[in-house]
User: Fold N-terminal kinase-like protein from Erinaceus europaeus.
Amino acid sequence: MWFFARDPVRDFPFELSPEPPEGSPPGPWALHRGRKKATGSPVSIFVYEVKAGADEQTQVAKAAFKRLKTLRHPNILAYIDGLETDKCLHVVTEAVTPLGSYLKARAEAGGATELELSWGLHQIAKALSFLVNDCSLIHNNVGTAAVFVDRAGEWKLGGLDYMYSAQGNGNGGGPPRKGVPELEQYDPPELADGSGRAGREKWSADMWRLGCLIWEVFNGPLPRASALRNPGKIPKSLVPHYCELVGANPKVRPNPARFLQNCRAPGGFMSNRFVETNLFLEEIQIKEPAEKQKFFQELSKSLDSFPEDFCRHKVLPQLLTAFEFGNAGAVVLTPLFKVGKFLSAEEYQQKIIPVVVKMFSSTDRAMRIRLLQQMEQFIQYLDEPTVNTQIFPHVVHGFLDTNPAIREQTVKSMLLLAPKLNETNLNVELMKHFARLQAKDDQGPIRCNTTVCLGKIGSYLSASTRHRVLSSAFSRATKDPFAPSRVAGVLGFAATHNLYSVNDCAQKILPVLCGLTVDPEKSVRDQAFKAIRSFLSKLESVSEDPTQLAEVEKDVHAASTPGVGGTAASWAGWAVTGVSSLTSKLIRAHPSAAPTDPAAPQRPSPEEAFQDSQTSPGPGVWGLSGLCSPGLPAAATTPTPMTSSHWETQEGDKDTAEDSSAADRWGDEDWGSLEQEAESVLAQQDDWGSGGQASRGQVAGSPSSWEAQGSWEQAWQENSPQEPAPEGTRLASEYNWGGQEPTDKGDPFAALSVRPGAQPRRDSWGDANWEGLDSDTDSRQAKAELARKKREERRREMEAKRAEKKAARGPMKLGTRKLD
Assistant:
């Protein structure tokens, strides 16, 4: 019945674009752009309209339909779907562009590179090798009209209309007649002069046509066959092999496989990094993990010379797959972010951001530090909810890590994350960690960078947090035994000068700065005098004209003002360009090198460290660790390891009393029973691995004697009570970072005892600040010894209980076997 009839074209799951056909190749087919109705994904649709009296052309089109449907090869046009009716034929393939149109567009954009062309010709030759050697088929239509290019720049062989078997067809006839002059001009001369098939190989005709294709790729459309004698713009490394293809003797023309082998020889046209990369990507699934690691490490160096479309559509999917299923790890990060530069904002959100979010939950330390180092490349694509709920909770674990390099990179990353943090994470959680780092971290560069970072993000804090935190934090920094930290405190005051009231400037800040005018380090004194002059000029202007008070204090009680901190930092000139830090270099020091002589410490030169202090870093330049970087010799050929004791020697004997006090406080901790705390410790372990747990000992560890100066950390003690660290946890300062192991390990606090030959500090301000800290040394040492004895007694009790239980059960019985 008529109402059961359906239109197959209307029900076809693909639809043609209303745009006119694009550059259709010569032949019976018209190429249209299309899309899949369900998903909207782009495709190419080859359409043949059946015409009356064209039965021969219809048979050719149907034969091509069948061939394309059954042949599957990476270098042959990929068939997706098809439709065959009495009126038309539709063949749906991957979205492609005719080679002629592609080369024309590339010429308008500056021309295709030899790398692109070498890989494209490699693909066509490989497709011909597959047809001739594996399928015994003659393509019979190789040329520009039969080659198509997909969105990744991959060349695909199509135009299968006139293909025939190498053994001959069933009727014993020769190759099918084309009847299209544009296609017949690529036929070899032996077919034109009727010399027959005798004396030539089965691939001879297709290799002649491949030579014509090479000539057209480099020189444009072929006007006549005689033009093949002049290579024109064909590269010199390809000319000898090209001449073999267009030789008059058909038996001399090489097999496609041998042609590829010749071109891939050292110094050949197809012997380059681009072809090697593509060949590796085609076989990446069967490569060994070590080979993949090496490949991804070297890939970043080559991406700059690769075509953009190739990076986006071929390299990027392989990188994502390698991370998702191949356990490639941190090695994929550098090429991944490099390829990400070619993506639009929408594509970046869809393809890379989900991977980045997943990477932040990784327990691999190498992955974490690579992410922190390269955060600048993807931070602009992260929205605030993602940062606060999925990234920041993982990043803050880096503040507690036992590796100083990770703690340092975590501090640096806050400069990028701060503008996207919510009220709680910025003003509560982050300030709590900063207070702990500035007061208790044993690495001077990390304390210095924490102070610098706080000055840069001060404008993002709320008004109440700024009032409570900034002046106290910078005041504490000015009493740090590490000279660059004191300079950072002074510059922090200067960078946030607009965030203090006039009363605070006069009563809180200037007294602190005046005390630094007699600092033993000249760089500290110089910066102190500059800051004092700035604050005095501010006070003088208000004194001369009291009406300016409102204008001067307009930012004091204002809400967070992004951008003000950056302007203040530029005015203060407080950051030195440079990305290598003393902390990282200490960790990377070779353990087998000779230790540094304590008698000749290599103390960082503050004058050298801050000679460029008036230079303002450009956008995206982190220069905080540069404050501490001059501590290492610049021309040293072998890095010299610096142990914790050597660090203390370089800082001077002023830390002796601090270390002794720290040892006493460490011993006062109530450790309790490890067995009773086992379950709670396991419950506290997070997905960052052992680093977070071990670092809890550092949180409750040895505070510096100068941590009592200032009060900004006290506000957070109620929110986050310190947890006792498990027994056996050691501070980062107690590890031997490359020196010889001490022979006497009986007393764990021996390294912290007062050195008998220590010389007193040459300055006078330290005596007042450290006064009274050693008054209760004897009582603290007694407490430490008592706590150690209690732990030893508890251990012996537990061992006795285990022995009793074992004795009650009796000896274990061994099984016996009855022998027949």
Strands lie at 14-16, 30-36, 42-49, 79-84, 88-94, 96-98, 137-138, 147-150, 155-157, 164-165. Residues 260 and 551 are 76 Å apart (CA to CA). The two ends are 87 Å apart (CA to CA). Residues 777-809 form the longest helix (33 residues).
